[in-house]
C-alpha cells in the first residue's frame, strides 16, 4: 500500500499565466471608498465552471455512533504545503453539478461512505485578501445502519492518495492540536470549526 | 465619511511573476506516494518574512458583556471578491513580530480595542490544494472595564477602510446567514467558526 510519508516535492519553478492550466494571477484596478484609484494583486483558480461563482465544497460528514458523533477526516499529501494535511473531505464542482450532489459524490469517491445532506452553509471565501477561491460547507449525516456503509470502499482517481479516519466531534480540537504537533498541517476551515466548538464550550453557548 | 458601498473594481489584467509585488505562481514537481513524478500548480504570497513560515493571524476578539459574549467583526471591501466581506480582524506578521503581538497590534489598529491573548490555535492553511497561505487563530479577550476600551479609536492606514461591529457569539451563525443574503461575502474561517458553534449545539457537545 502507498505510504503518504513517501510523497515529496522535488523541484519548483516560476509559472506564467500562459503556461498555467489551473491557476492564474491578475492585477486589479479598483476605486476605494473615497473614489481613489488603487491596485490590488490576486490569484485565482482557472477550473471554475463557466457562469459559475463557486469553486467547491467541504464536507462535514458525521457518523452518529453509540459513543457519540464521529467526524470523518482525511490525510492527504498537499504539494503546496510540501506536507501531509489534515482536512475534511472536499472537492471541486463539476460543470452543472449542484452543491449537494457534489458533496455526496466527493464523500462517496473519497471515503466510500453514502450520506444524506442535512445543512449547507452560505458561500464562504478561503482567503479574501489574496484570492477569490470559495466553497460551501455541507453537513452530511452518515447512517451506519445503511448496509452500504458497513464496508465503505473509496473510488480514488489514480492521482489521489487519501487516508480516511474518524475522531469524536467532541475531541476534534484536541486531536488537531496533537496532529499538528506530530508534523501534520491543518486545513483552516477544519481548525476553525474546532475553534468554534471550543468557543461554544468556553462560553457555554446554548 | 467614506461609504464602503462606493468601492468597486474598474479593471483587471493578467499579472506576471516578474511584475508582481505581493503574489507569485509556481509549478511544483513532486513524487506521489507510489514514487511517480507529477506536477502541481500553486499560488502564494511574496510578503512572508524571510525565514518565517507564517503569513498572518486572524483574531477572535470577545467582549464579555452583561448580555453575554460579543464577537468583534468587520466589513471591508475586498478587491479579489469585488465585494464587501464580513471578516474577523486580521493581518500579516511584521518581520520578527510574534504571533501574539501581531494579533494585539492588528486588533488595536483596526478596531481601537485593547485586548489580552487567551489562546492561540495551531497554524492552519487557508486552501491547501491551491496555496500555502496560512495563519494562526488568536483568541483575545477585550475587557470593557479597561478605560481605553470606552471609546476605541482605530488607527487605519490610508488604504484601509474598515467598519467594525459586534454580534452576540451565540447568534454568529444566524447573523452570517443574514449578511450573506444581504449580499455581503463571508470569510471562510469566520463562517467555519460559526458552523462549529452550530455543530456543538446540534450534537449537544459539552
Automatic annotation (TrEMBL), chains A, B:
Coiled-coil zones: none
Q: Which GO terms describe its cellular component?
A: cytosol; nucleus
Give the Nudix hydrolase domain ranges. 52-192
GO molecular function (one): ADP-ribose diphosphatase activity
One GO BP annotation is: ribose phosphate metabolic process
**Entry keyword set:** Hydrolase
Record Pfam families: NUDIX
Q: Which SUPFAM superfamilies match?
A: Nudix
Report the InterPro entries cross-referenced here. NUDIX_hydrolase-like_dom_sf, NUDIX_hydrolase_CS, NUDIX_hydrolase_dom
Q: What is this protein called?
A: BA75_02389T0
Question: What is the originating organism of this protein?
Answer: Komagataella pastoris
Q: What is the lineage of its organism?
A: Eukaryota, Fungi, Dikarya, Ascomycota, Saccharomycotina
Amino acid at each position: 500500500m502507498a505510504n503518504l510519508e513517501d510523497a515529496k516535492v522535488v523541484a519548483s519553478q516560476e509559472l506564467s499565466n500562459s503556461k498555467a492550466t489551473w491557476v492564474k494571477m491578475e492585477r486589479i484596478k479598483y476605486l476605494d471608498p473615497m473614489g481613489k484609484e488603487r491596485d490590488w494583486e490576486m490569484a485565482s483558480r482557472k477550473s471554475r465552471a463557466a457562469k459559475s461563482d463557486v469553486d467547491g465544497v467541504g464536507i462535514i460528514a458525521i457518523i452518529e455512533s453509540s459513543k457519540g458523533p464521529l467526524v470523518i477526516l482525511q490525510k492527504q499529501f498537499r504539494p503546496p504545503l510540501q506536507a501531509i494535511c489534515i482536512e475534511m473531505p472536499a472537492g471541486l464542482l463539476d460543470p452543472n453539478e449542484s452543491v449537494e450532489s457534489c458533496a455526496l459524490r466527493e464523500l462517496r469517491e473519497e471515503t466510500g461512505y453514502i450520506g444524506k445532506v442535512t445543512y449547507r452553509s452560505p458561500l464562504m471565501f478561503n482567503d479574501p485578501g489574496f484570492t477569490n477561491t470559495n466553497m460551501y460547507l455541507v453537513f452530511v449525516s452518515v447512517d451506519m445502519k445503511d448496509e452500504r456503509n458497513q464496508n465503505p470502499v473509496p473510488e480514488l482517481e489514480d492521482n489521489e492518495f487519501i487516508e480516511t479516519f474518524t475522531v469524536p466531534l467532541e475531541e476534534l480540537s484536541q486531536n488537531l492540536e496533537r496532529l499538528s504537533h506530530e508534523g501534520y498541517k491543518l486545513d483552516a476551515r477544519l481548525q476553525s470549526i474546532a475553534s468554534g466548538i471550543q468557543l461554544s464550550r468556553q462560553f457555554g453557548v446554548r
